[in-house]
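Message: Study each token:
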Amino acid sequence: MQRFFFDDEKIDLNRFSVSGEKYNHIIRSLRISVGEKVVFCDGNFYDYECELVSYDTEHAYFEIQKKYVNCTEPELRITVFQCLPKGDKMDEMVKRCVQFGVHTIVPVLSRRCVSRPEHKSSVKKIERLNKIARASAMQSMRGYIPQVSEIIGFEQAVEQMKGFQNSFICYENEMNNYFKIPDQKNGDIAFLIGPEGGLDNSEVEYAVNNDVPCVSLGKRILRTEDAASFLIPILLYNTKNL
């Protein structure tokens, strides 16, 4: 069945209508017919099986048939602190991480980030990334829309990471300390990926002094836009959340 997220639709006696862009997609692009069933998700872990009962030139009218818990969400909540990469690499990174099961993405501005957007452009960038996250969540049948937060500095990122049950920084110059799979199936975990030029030595020192360890992801160097999507499936598989 086709899948959508609720927006501001008002449900009255198990019925609701959609309009605008969503109406055009359902009726004109997908050509869904009266009597066909689709799934709407509330973005808060519940799915609704709905039947198209009628439509006119501006509205499509649905009736809710079933409500049930979405079964695609991992119990382990993964937050990725991603140092801003160049160009549009962040777009692909968000798309992949949402498909693979990330909970939250936090863009980070570290010392060696080449991309340093001004406030006005950064607001637009985050809006675009959240639209990408929403589309990717819909495609991958997520029951929750992962959020891309506002851009923060490196030290602020470290302070936030200290509040997680498990947190670490993926550092290409760490040779001995490999990341360890957490024991718990649920809970939360956070990790930070550096920019193209890597992290500054002073940033690494700051993190370690604040009890956020640096770890290696292996012998091969990964691109900054690929590292998170490499790590997320490993964490989910080994905690029985895949």
